[in-house]
Amino acid sequence: MRLINAMTLEIKEFVSEIPPYAILSHRWGEEEVSYQDFNNASLRSQRAGFEKIRLTCTQALQDGIEYAWVDTCCIDKTSSAELGEAINSMFKWYQWSKMCYAYLDDVDGDTILAARTGVAPGTSVWHASIAGSRWFTRGWTLQELIAPKDVQFYSRSWVWIGSKLSLITELHEVTGVGEDILCGAPLNTVSVAERMRWAADRVTTREEDTAYSLMGIFEVNMPMLYGEGSKAFLRLQEEIIKEWDDHSLFAWTASTESERQAPLRGILAQTPREFAHSHNIVP
């Protein structure tokens, strides 16, 4: 596992005895800093994505944490083997972090400050601004919300918004994830269908990531095969069947009229959207 020394901004690799680290959860944007970019100090500083790395490291030091992990630059994505291992380990890496910083780059810090100082009419203003963030629409950020013990939310200008604990009611309303799960209850206390429902309205840039981003939620592993398209989600369900004796996996509903009228289709769902109405199903 590669970590950034938050003081020196140098990347160091750890095989065992991984030190405490902070971890960043964010939406990818333009000009992210790759592993190769990061090793070139003059180049990385020119990338738009470097600022959130710098802010992450600064915050980590303020929180007494020496190291930080950011997916854009701590994984060598030119190596398919390394990328596959990282994606299969991602949930655990977030789970093991001492602190997770959720960077909501479309939330205005001034709105947060105004709400706190009483200029804006009450806390509902900044709760509403959080709910509208695209961070809550991305596939990967679901596990990044659930896995860490401590998540701290920050605005575009790195104004502190709140913690997972202090915002737990709002987070439940926005994501549909139960407050018990957000507080650290085991995922196996929730049915497979319910966990799929959490991802029903989330999107990923690559079709395969719809499945790959859910592996940690279901505690399964499988090889990455970018290019397989929708087959990835079918493979995910096959791995879930092997791992879990939970027939709620079959409690889905076709999401379009054409699918509902199809004369024949398989027993497995085609996307998490087909679990959108799978409420209150117990394991």
UniProtKB/TrEMBL annotation:
Domain Heterokaryon incompatibility: 21-114
Highest taxon of the lineage: Eukaryota
Signal peptide extent: none
Residue ranges occupied by any DUF8212 domain in the UniProt entry: 231-260
PANTHER family: HET DOMAIN-CONTAINING PROTEIN (PTHR10622)
Protein name listed in UniProt: HET-domain-containing protein
Lineage: Eukaryota, Fungi, Dikarya, Ascomycota, Pezizomycotina
